[in-house]
Write a structure and sequence with these properties.
- With about 180 residues, the protein is α/β, with parallel strands linked by helices.
- The protein contains 7 helices and 7 strands; from the N terminus they run βαβαβαββαβαβαα.
- The protein has helices at about 30-45, 60-70, 85-95, 110-125, 140-155, 160-165, 170-180, and strands at about 20-25, 45-55, 75-80, 100, 105, 130-135, 160.
- The strands form 2 sheets. It has a 5-stranded parallel beta sheet with strand order 3-2-1-6-7, sandwiched between helices. A two-stranded antiparallel ribbon has the order 4-5.
């Protein structure tokens, strides 16, 4: 990676190599979070627990996602069904308020992020993980929603965002890394 564009951690809540022992990774089972699981083991030398939340968006087999995380080296893979909580505590109030983005787009995706952050913190505390990780890029609002949620619920948790750190420039480079790992 060109040194001119190398990501440098500056926030106090970001995980630093050498300090990290246990990470709770927000895990979808897709390419990015699967590569993250191996990449953090390689780069940080940590044990990783994964957390997958079903808020109604999942078309995948959640048990297969759990098994994949374990096969890739997670010490534990937790899957939570949060559909009822999401519908009652987030979607219903948003529908009642006619919440829309740019005059038309329903806000279900962005509404799910605070709930996901809540469970990420809750499970991290239960698992005694000092760090959490996510697959959001540094370019979008999802990263902000997840990180602000985590920081507001538990300021002691540190965060690792591999997509901001790693040097893969293309999906092909990412897949090559996955095949080699």
């Amino acid at each position: 990676m060109d040194q001119k564009y190398k990501y440098q951690k500056v926030a106090s809540y970001e995980g630093k190599i050498g300090e990290v022992k246990h990470v709770l990774l927000l895990y979808s089972g897709g390419l990015d979070t699967s590569v993250m699981l191996k990449w953090m083991q390689d780069k940080y030398g940590v044990k990783i627990t994964t957390l997958t939340l079903d808020i109604g968006q999942q078309k995948d087999d959640l048990d297969a996602i759990r098994k994949k995380a374990l096969r890739l080296g997670a010490v534990e893979a937790i899957v939570l069904d949060a559909k009822k909580e999401f519908a009652e505590d987030f979607i219903l109030p948003a529908l009642q308020a006619h919440a829309r983005y740019e005059q038309g787009y329903m806000m279900a995706t962005s509404l799910g992020r605070p709930l996901i952050a809540k469970h990420l913190v809750k499970v991290a505390q239960k698992e005694r993980a000092e760090y959490v990780a996510h697959g959001c890029t540094g370019k979008g609002n999802d990263q902000v929603r997840i990180e602000v949620g985590v920081r507001s619920l538990d300021p002691s948790l540190k965060i690792i965002a591999p997509l901001k750190e790693w040097s893969f420039k293309t999906r092909e480079e990412e897949m090559d890394y996955a095949k080699a790992s």
